[in-house]
Amino acid sequence: MKKNKLIAYDLGTGGIKASLFGVDGTSYAEVFQQYETFFPDDKFIEQRPMDWWKGVCDATQILLNKSGCDASEIACTALSGHSLVAAPIDKDGNLLLEQVPIWCDMRAVHEVPEFFSSLTYKDWYETTGNGDPEECYTIFKLMWMKKNQPDIFEKISKILGSKDFINYKFTGELCTDPSYASGFGVFNLEKWDYEDRFFEAAGISKDIFPEIRPSDSIIGYVTKEAACECGLLEGTPVACGAVDNTCMALGARGLEEGVVYTSLGSSSWIAVTSQTPVIDLKTRPFVFAHAKKGYYTSAVSIFSAGNSFRWIRDRLLMDHPADTDTYDIMNKMAESTPPGSHGVLFNPTLAGGSAQEPSPNLKGGFMGLTLGNTREDLVRATMEGVAMALRKTLDILKSQVDIQGDMLLCGGCSKSTIWRRIFADIYNMPVIKTNIDQDAASLGAAALAANACGLWYGYDRIHEIHKPEDALTPDPETNAYYEKLLKIYGKWTDALANLGDEMMQI
């Protein structure tokens, strides 16, 4: 059979999605397999790498059966993987820990000041672009491991990220790509390579970090053992792949300067592609190397978007039967209320403030409530509050990058027409939804696989794959009204942050 199919894996926090793509970018089928997250202690958030591997194997077999595709048709495979993971491997290739810290694990609080005792945060951040909380990054997790698990640490031969561990299980190769390496906390964005002095500051050997290979290069081939477990043919090419932020940026219309998208999931972020990383010491955007040297994806985020909307659903719409489409009802409720939600504002920081917000102690809330307000007002105010919080972060990116064209909305929340209208009016820019929807990361991984095996030459084709399903332009009158509300929202957010800091003291 002709090898003209690709399998892309999106290894996320909640589970693994395996997608079958054709050469033209058509998605034929997809399968999702969930895995567990563990919380063994305060600030400890872990997963089992072997659960990732089992998920990949199960999803691959189900995908091939579901689609009717023969394994001999698979030309290449590639992964998108969640970032900042430290999976330790010994000299014999064995995984040293059953459970490993994932991206949001923040146990390394004491290691951060030790690291910065010999260099400044400014120097480190401006070199790496690592704007998330420092303790999330891999180098600090390793410092914690060295201090608290010395028997494990001394056996480490290599540490691997999430998608790199799966690549290792597929091929036996121990390597990573520039995008994933740029989240290790030791990567120089300008040099496109590791920075020696950061290893010295951490007291961690550079030798345990994996070799960096291009994201769209073939790193190896599916081994006989892996083939027996996952259902792919022995010898199937495996591309290096990329971190999830980079895969999503690539799948959200490629490698052009100023291309921007908003990912609307449980949390939410806005990312822009540019040839200059967006570095700002005050607001700390987080930056990853892109799929092509010389390009970067810079992002700003809020921690609660879809999960704020879900919180409202679970608290205010408990009277609706479980078998009803509650989100559809909420959309209709929001449509019944005018812009501004009859004077109600909502701050969506139910999970605390991100690095781009005034304090990590910022907490959510409603403002302007009266006895006359309805739950319809609260539902729309929640949608507007998420959009306002993101608009504030969007302004950070706009201050450094000439953002052209429209804003692509991706993720589950982008399915709401009324929410897209609210985003267009609050962002004050055209907003579009395409057929790719929640598959941007998978498409990005498929594009890397297609280039790695020679089915594609470059990434221009991604634009053709995106088929607009809805496009909304801002209403000038509504935007003018929202601009006034945004000023109030900003002052209120600063006040909430200050009060949140005071609350932490008591």
Automatic annotation (TrEMBL):
Biological process according to GO: carbohydrate metabolic process
Span of domain Carbohydrate kinase FGGY C-terminal: 261-452
InterPro entries: ATPase_NBD (IPR043129), Carb_kinase_FGGY (IPR000577), Carb_kinase_FGGY_CS (IPR018483), FGGY_C (IPR018485), FGGY_Carb_Kinase (IPR050406), FGGY_N (IPR018484)
Keyword Aminoacyl-tRNA synthetase attached: no
GO molecular function: kinase activity; phosphotransferase activity, alcohol group as acceptor
TM spans (from-to): none
Domain Carbohydrate kinase FGGY N-terminal, first and last residues per copy: 7-251
Top-rank taxon, per record: Bacteria
Record-linked Pfam families: FGGY_C (PF02782), FGGY_N (PF00370)
Keywords in alphabetical order: Kinase, Transferase
SUPFAM superfamilies: Actin-like ATPase domain
Sequence similarity: Belongs to the FGGY kinase family.
Protein name per the record: Pentose kinase
Source organism phylogeny: Bacteria, Bacillati, Bacillota, Clostridia, Lachnospirales
